[in-house]
Structure formats: C-alpha cells, structure tokens
Amino acid sequence: MDTQQITAPSRAPSRVRGSATPSSGVVHINSRHTSRFTVVGNHLTQHRELSLTAIGLAAHIQSLPAGAKISIRFLADRFPESETRIAAALRELEAHGYLQRTRERLPSGQVVTRTVSYNQPSSEAGRTPVSEPQPRPELGPRRTAPRRPAAATPPTPAPEPTPAPTPRPDTQALAPAPEPQRTSEPPRPLLPQPQVPDLERHRAAAELLVDLRRHEPRLLLAENDIHRLTPAVAAWLERDAHPDAVRHALTTNLPEHLKQPAGLLAHRLTTHLPPPLPAAPAPVSAPRPQPLQECDGCDRPFRAPEPGCCRDCRTDVHEAA
Fold first, then answer.
1. Of the candidates 290, 295, 289, which has an alpha carbon nearest to the alpha carbon of residue 308?
2. Which whole-number Å values give the CA distances from 272 to 59, 78, 254, in the listed order?
3. Residue 126: is its pLDDT beyond 50?
4. Which residue of 93, 115, 174, 302 pairs with 99 in a disulfide if CB–CB is 3.0 to 4.6 A?
5. Are 242 and 250 in contact (CB under 8 A)?
6. pLDDT per position as a tens digit, 44-67
C-alpha cells in the first residue's frame, strides 16, 4: 500500500508547447510560414484609434503586389462592405499615415489616382512631426543690489528682461507637409429600370443574360449579377429592342483582358440604352366609292349618291329644253 506509483504523471500536460497554458484569454498555436505570407507590425494590428475595418483593409493592401487595383469600387466588389465603409476606412488610414493618395494628370489629359501604402506610419501622409525641445539659453550673472543699513528699507529691484530664444535654422524644414487634397470617386450611374413591370419580359431578360456565356465564354455571370442586371435588360426589351440586338450589343467588341464582365455589361446597358420608338401613325383609310344607281332614262348603272339620271340622259334633257 505504501508503494509509490511512478507511472502516473505529476500534473496534467500543457496544451501549448514551450509555455504554460494561460488561465483565460486567447491561446496561440503558431506554425512557421515558409511562403505566401506578409509581415504586419503590431503598431497597425493593435492600433487604438483605427477601426477594425481600417486595420483589416490595411493588412489586405500590404499583402497585395505592386500595381494591384485598390479603388473604392474594386474593393466594394471584392468584399461585402459597402463603398461608404471602405471609403471611411481609407480616410482613416490616410489620416494616420498608412496610406497616401494623390491625383495626377497624365500627358494624355486623363486624371488618375496614385496610391502609396506604408507598412510604417509615414509623416508625409498627414502626421505632423514633433520638433525636438530647444535648450533654454543661459542667462548672465544676476546683479545684486548694494547692501544698505538695516534701518533703511531696500527698494524693490525691477525684473530683469529675459532674452528671447534664438530660432534654430532648421525650423522651416520641420514644418508639416501640406495634406493632399482628397477627392472622392464619382458615384456609379443608376441602371435603367422598366417603366411598366412585366413578368414575361423580366423572365426573358434573365434568360438572355444566362445565355450570354454560350456566345461568349468570358461572360460567365454570377447569380447575384444576373438579378442586378435583369431590370436593365428588361428596360431594353420594353423599348422594342430585339433580343438578338441586345445580345449583339453586349457581346461584340469586348476588351482583350476582361476582368469584370458584370461591370462591363452594366456600363453598356446604361450608356447604350436606345430611345423608345415613336408612336406609329394611324392608318389612313381609302375613301369609299359612291353606290351604284340605275338611270331612270336608259336603265344604265352609274355611281351617284342618290338615284336619278346618268350624265348622258341629263345632257339630252338639257339640250331638248
């Protein structure tokens, strides 16, 4: 009974190798990355003033290769957040020095946005550098008033002037850089909508969009894109556009590198919307001929509004008279 059980463990094993298991909070199980990883500083991931959307967006931008698209519209199509939230997150990163956006005009006249991402907060993107404290200049020896007899009250000495500190020569160099002007992207144009809802026309428009991939394999649309573009195609059909004409307008002259087929179709359906056909003129009816009458004099038929004599009989009557 007093034999020690040497096979029983002295305590439960730790779940985390190399360190004791914490009593509460998160437990990290880390694996070493050898490829496809991005180094992000804790100054960003644990930032106390940035929102969680801005922190995640900054980490995503730092993981992208140089030249990748990060416009508000492209990010809104990539992530479930709206354009408003993404634009607000970009402004946060720009205010804290993790992002810098400038507008430049190309030699062709086109205005483009240049975006620079910083993995360390940059002082050029809106942060004001803090100047070093200047040493206080030393003052000369303080003058002492001559001693007088104790019976006499000494006059109050006037305060000595304090010389102003000499400005450093690099004060202008430490002035904060002007903040770049922020420009918002123009809003997307609204897709055309039919004037009168028609279930059959709506079904035909959806089938036309689904069938586009048979004519052009690159126009493979997601189900959400088909629901969004169906009213626009219905508006074309409502204006008496033939389905073959709509299909031809959407599938011809496509760019060589087509990255967003839904965006291209939305642009064409909006900008190439045909005008409604004018109202067809009312058909002009031919005048009806006068009814046939039987001549009272010669019994020959002739056309006249009322019964009577034909032209020959009326002439004979007038000549006889």
1. 295
2. 39, 26, 14
3. no
4. 93
5. no
6. 898 999 999 999 998 999 898 888
What pTM was estimated for this model as a whole? 0.35
Within 10 A of 55 (CB to CB), how many other CB atoms are there?
Answer: 19
Distance between CA 264 and CA 254 in Å, rounded? 9
| Per-residue pLDDT at 151 exceeds 80 | no
- pLDDT bracket for residue 127 (50, 70, 90): very low
Q: How far apart are CA 262 and CA 78, in angstroms?
A: 13
Q: Sign of the C-alpha dihedral, residues 99, 103, 106, 108?
A: positive
| Residue whose C-alpha is closest to residue 21's, from 9, 30, 13 | 13
140, amino acid identity? G
> Given this model, what pLDDT does residue 178 score?
60
98 closest CA partner among 56, 132, 69: 56
Residue with tokens 């204006």: 239
Report helix angle 83-95 to 52-63, nearest 10.
80
CB 97 within 8 A of CB 123: yes
320 residue type, one letter: A
The interaxial angle of helices 223-238 and 261-271, nearest 10 deg, is: 20
DSSP H helix total and E strand total for the chain: 10, 4
Element (DSSP H or E) covering residue 225: helix 223-238
Distances (CA, A) of 71 to 33, 76, 82, 186, 271: 29, 9, 13, 12, 22
Spatial contact of 268 and 249, defined as CB atoms under 8 Å apart:
yes
At residue 232's C-alpha, the angle toward residues 229 and 234, to 5°, is: 110
- Identify the pLDDT of residue 136: 45
- Per the listing, tokens 């009989």 go with 313
Domains and CATH numbers, the chain: 42-125 (1.10.10.10), 199-253+261-271 (no CATH)
Token duo for residue 12: 């439960």
